Amino acid sequence: MNLLSFLSRRGTAPVARERLQILLAHERTAFGRSDLVAVLREEILAVIAKHVAIDQEKVKVTMERGDAVSTLGVDIELPDNKVARLASA
Amino acid sequence: MAKVIVVTSGKGGVGKTTTTAALGAALAQAGQSVCVVDFDVGLRNLDLIMGAERRVVYDLINVVQGDAKLTQALIRDKRLDTLSLLPASQTRDKDALTDDGVARVIGELREKFDWVICDSPAGIERGATLAMRHADIAVVVTNPEVSSVRDSDRIIGLLDAKTERAEKGERLEKHLILTRYDPGRAERGEMLKIDDVLEILSIPLLAVVPESEEVLKASNLGSPVTLNAPQSAPARAYADAVRRLKGETVAMIVPSEKRSLLGKLFTRRAA
Questions:
Q1: Tell me: the pLDDT tens digits for A6-26?
Q2: Nearest 5 degrees, angle CA B69-CA B73-CA B76?
Q3: pLDDT tens per residue across span B9-18
Q4: What is the pLDDT of residue B270?
Q5: Beta strands in chain A (DSSP E)
Q6: Which residues, numbered 19 to 78 in chain A, qualify as contacts with chain B under a Cβ-Cβ cut-off of 8 Å?
């Protein structure tokens, strides 16, 4: 069995699906199509930015759709010194 | 009150014209009065797919510019007397279509018919935005393939921005028709599945039209597939789509070409 036949057992469609999800999340922001994830990202950022200085690049918002439950993941990297200052204030 | 549908996709060659002809004929077969309008100025093809290419005298641009009356340009189908075609011009370019002229023609069509189905040109330029401009319902035609899905995503963005309904803050119904689908290849992981495309585009599914020889046979003859081979898998998919457009609840299945008992047993249920 060579590498190709090993890969083809998984199928190429999951690769297509993953490439599209990543590409379209990016393009929707660029062309101003406001989908739920993009809107949530903006609003969550605005709330947190009121209290903590955050780097726009270090924010990840992901949505996993499931049959029964969908999960929203918000991952924000906070700079250490800013958090400390906020806590002591 | 007539409903205006735009059949659009972004990408070319995915089945917009086939879908326009099939939905138009299926609605007429269900007793509705329908006009199919070709917006692909300079590259008209709906006339050919409908088998009316030798009957074109006046076209959409003649009517838009006031050189012909709407009734002079409409071509009534010879097989279905409630189905009409408004052809595009083959010699002019899309700049001859004015915003006001198109609005006036769509307004006149709304008064005459139950359904007006606009066949959009490919692309995201003026021709495509004019075709979608006055729509109440958008049918996005997509193949289970990366470039088609990407372009459909762009078109969905345009539908939410450039249509009259979107600008007024009204709801524009959007539906997906997935064409050239092969359940076997999807099952083997060689083709995006229905659920994959639905999750990415997040618009409701109107029909899944399986890959079929019948589509080419019908276009060879200039007859919509729902007329030419009513029992074929694509024809049944379009007939179900039409029942859903009319508000009926129809179980979503991917019609299969096999008519044997075995084939029926294995008819795959879609999401």
A1: 555 578 998 898 888 888 887
A2: 130
A3: 999 999 999 9
A4: 47
A5: 59-64, 71-76
A6: 19-21, 23-24, 27-28, 31-33, 35, 65
Q: Please tell me the total count of domains within chain A.
A: 1
Mutate to test the interface with B, among A19, A21, A33 (most CBs of B within 10 A): A33
The pair of three-digit structure tokens given for residue B159, joined into one six-digit string: 């539908």
Distance CA(B77)–CA(B257), nearest Å, equals: 28
- Three-state DSSP class for residue B4: strand
What distance in Å separates the CA atoms of residue B243 and residue B240, rounded to the nearest whole number?
5
ipTM reported for the complex, 2 dp: 0.78
In whole angstroms, give the CA distance from residue B225 to residue B214.
7
Task: DSSP letter for B116, please.
Answer: E
* CATH code for the domain of B197: 3.40.50.300
Range of the domain at A40: 2-88
